Amino acid sequence: MLSVQAARADDNVQLAFASTDLNAFTTWLDEAAGIEAVPGGALAIVSREGVSQLRTWGVRSLDTREPVNAESVFRLASMSKTFAGTAAELLVDQHLQSWDSPLTDLFPGMQLGTGNTEGSITLQQIVSHSTGLMPHAYSNLLDDGVAYDRIKGKFNQIPTVCAPGKCYGYQNVVFSLVGDVVEKTTGDSYAHFIEERLFKPLGMASASIGLDSYLNNDNATAPHLKTTGGWHTTTTNPAYYSVAPASGVNASIDDMALWVRANLGAFPEILSPEALAHLQEPVIATPYGGYFNNWSGLEKAYYATGWRVFDYKGMRVIHHGGGVRGYRSEMVFVPTKNVGMVLLMNAETKLANDVVPAFLDNLTDRKL
Question: Which terminus of the chain has fewer CB atoms gathered within 10 Å of its CB, N or C?
Fold first, then answer.
């Protein structure tokens, strides 16, 4: 059962919505998570001004039975890409990089793809999955436990399927070149850059990057898979931590409530309105693939800079989900309605596929 772990709404501010307004959504989630017997999870509903609801349920691990709390750490999987896109935005804002400069200017010996267009692939195309390279290039090697540094030498073998900027192709390995750009540009590690420029300024006290940080956190949740015998804990594939920009962030629901609020515009001294506008501007249409294409309210779908962007029942929606062995997560917000939601689960459950439309349908039913 979902339980109210904390209510972070500031008494001195007027939230754009009352916590009871989303009771239909939280009731649905309570029932659905109970039916699925999801081992553990955490939910936050926020506005720019504060947290309206923060709820946790279940246990960090079915082996130890310790309860999930607001500081319990989950793997974010592909929701990590939202931090990587923002890292690139910070570099461009400081005039340290340009969206339109070819990556080969920074890495002269690099060849991306088998076509003749590798010299024109830009930072913007990397973070928007519009490189023109075959989708999911070498994710199979990550699945087999092969780390990023051992894969980079094969970038010249990735089939080129269209000109850069002309088609969408989701990536994990190629996307992680963002980390190389950060490190080459700043002389700092990608993890330290994110910690100093985003985690610390935003107060994301439990957030970290990397396998060691996850393993050394006493409040980390464990991954779970479901078999015919029910849910059980499973192992962690370290290779997905090697592509840190794509899937390397660990965070609690307290942390992620701050992250969604930041992207709604709560902390303009850290993420300016101009930066957020660029991050949320569609770059490439995503007309195929993905569980979200089955959402009945979906009108158009795009990828922006580290974020998905949807038109859903007349609303412009910003979203990203994540899934890695034993974890699922979903995050969505609607800037014009000043409301967002993030859900973290330590279970590889298809329930996550239905969470965002359930939340958005609740918003449209309320006619805010």
Answer: N
